[in-house]
Amino acid sequence: MIQATSTAQHLSTLLGNYPGTRALLDGEIAAGNYQLDLAPVKVPNTAFKRVVRSLEFDVAELAIATFLQAKALGKPLVLLPATVVGRQQHAKLVYNAARGPLSATDLTGRRIGIRAYSVTTVMWLRGILQHDHGLNPANVTWVTFEDGHVAEFKDPPNAERAPAGKTLQEMLLSGELDAAIVGEPPAAHATLAALIDDPHAAAVQWCKHHGAVPINHLVTVSAKLCQDNPDAVREVYRLLKAAKTQAGLDTPAGPDFLPFGLDNLRPSLELAIQYAHEQGLLSRSLSVDELFDDVTRAL
Fold first, then answer.
1. Contact 63, 44 (CB under 8 A)
2. Is 86 helix (H, G, I), strand (E, B) or coil?
3. d(CA 272, CA 210)
4. Which of 24, 82, 126, 204 shows a CA-CA span of 20 to 30 A to 163?
5. Is the per-residue pLDDT at 70 higher than 80?
6. Which CATH topology does 9-87+214-297 take?
7. pLDDT of 129-142, one tens digit each?
């Protein structure tokens, strides 16, 4: 719970502890007339179903692919132009080098393990493989380990569920999977390697080419909060931006993976919408501007 004045309005909040949010969560930045009541969740993505299915929070961190799916379905959520998780994605596609060489152009007809079909990192890498390496995602078997966050979404025919009790890394090492997309590097193993050559350089070049970054998690607010108390929404954005500034993240040496503001986010959001729509994640296409309302669009 982030302390504020005794008469503060309480806002139910889901937000992870990252370098760019730490000053806010630690109380180093005054919350003024609003109190962020933080959900006791160590890993925010474990609560994303609660954000889009039961609409539990006034303020919530959310993966962009999940938000786009929810927005296309008319869920009453509004995007803040505030990124809290962003990173290079190319290194997240891995394979077992002990089983022989494998490149991005060799993946047609292969089996790729993923946590869930609609995971944001998977969305970005499918788009990268399609547009930069000529892979048709429909010609891959996507092996999943859990459902997506949005209940209405159903996996496509070329996705299958991994056998119960199996783990992604075990299947990758045994050869049951040819490659895998991982949120974090798998446990240290000498034979697991990035499938895309020089993934750091490839990621930097991708950002330069597109003038965008492959954002992961942004902050959303309930449409009701925007309607009933726009000042609270503006204050939440101010707090998030101040926390990023206090962490010294406003002037990165390379691409800014935590962009704030609609103008800075627009190229990344346009690509996210394009990739999500191409991959069948969305029930309808979206425009960038409809992700926001009059309050958040002006932030």
1. no
2. strand
3. 12
4. 126
5. yes
6. D-Maltodextrin-Binding Protein; domain 2 (3.40.190)
7. 999 999 999 999 99
Question: Which pair of structure tokens corresponds to residue 259?
Answer: 């962009």
> What are the distances in angstroms from CA 232 to CA 21, 129, 136, 149, 218?
18, 41, 44, 27, 17
Q: Is 107 helix (H, G, I), strand (E, B) or coil?
A: coil
Q: Which residues pair with 63 in a beta bridge?
A: 217
For residue 122, give both structure tokens.
């998977």
Phi-psi region of 117 (alpha: psi -120 to 50; beta: other; left: phi over 0): alpha
Q: Give residues with Cβ within 8 angstroms of 191, minimum separation 6.
A: 96, 97, 98, 99, 173
Tell me which amino acid residue 175 is: G
Number of Cβ within a 10 Å radius of residue 2: 20
Whether 9-87+214-297 and 90-209 share one fold: the answer is yes
What is the homologous superfamily of the domain 90-209 according to CATH?
A: Periplasmic binding protein-like II (3.40.190.10)
Quickly tell me which residue has 């800075």 as its tokens. 264
Alpha-carbon span 13 to 59, nearest angstrom: 5
Q: Pairing relation of β-strands 59-63 and 215-222?
A: antiparallel
pLDDT single digits (tens) 270-294 = 999 999 999 999 999 999 999 999 9
Q: What is the rounded average pLDDT for all residues in the chain? A: 94
* Whole-number Å distance between alpha carbons of 3 and 34: 8
**What angle do helix axes 262-278 and 64-72 make, rounded to 10 degrees?**
70
Please tell me the distance from the alpha carbon of residue 214 to that of residue 85, in angstroms, as a whole number: 10
